[in-house]
Amino acid sequence: RLAIHVEPGRVRILTRGGHDWTDRFPTIANEATDFGTTMILDGEAVVLDEQGKSSFGALQRALGGRGGHRRADEAIFYAFDLLYFDGHDLTKLDLTERRQILDGLLVDHAGVIRLSEEVEADGDELLAAACAHGLEGIIAKNREQPYRSGRTGDWIKVKCVQSDSFFIVGYEPSAVAHGGIRNLFLAAYKGNDLIYVGNVGTGFNERDATRLRKDLDKLKTSRAPIAFKQRGVVWVQPTLIAEIEYRAWTDDGKLRHASYKGLRERQDNADVYRLPQ
Asked: 202 and 103, same structural domain?
């Protein structure tokens, strides 16, 4: 998520946290200078995969991974709102009016700064179509509201959620988290081996986490059941199978935005997710 601030002779690309990433997106910055007027574009930088879909993993690689400092020359910018234009503050206008101005600015613009597609449709049908095409989900916005920063309820993100079963192979204890569990460490099958697929630290309530901690402590083992090293982890025998919701897989084979939904009532190893060989 980025905001592009365009002024005569100057462009700044700011992250949602206020960091100046102009040097990280030089191609986008260079194109923004050609508009020749003052504006603030609200949108998102993406890197597209071979099917033309935005790829979080590809964007991560372009930026050099977590903590990296590469220049993402291959990134493009999809603008979905216009907050300031030609000396005028547009935030008091409703979304319909702001989009009309943005459409007029970008509808015929070809380059790395592009107009995001706006679709008027039945929400359930559109979400089903987005999920069927492997997209992350949809954003629904109130057309009659002015621009207000933050999660105000004027817009909502509806995700295409995936859910699968994974072994719990360890946990990271905590003195303050629910039930004394900060994170669960998860594994899936790859052939006959167990492979680490990430951890999960959300979705617990205190009662379930306390019960889970007691069950896990009965399964403690001194030897990690996966080829993974990290200090402070209490390893357990791969016996308990958890149902995990997640948004996607990262390029290095880890669950993205995972959330714990509970233990499988049937602890059947055949239910555990199998990674492709």
From this structure: no
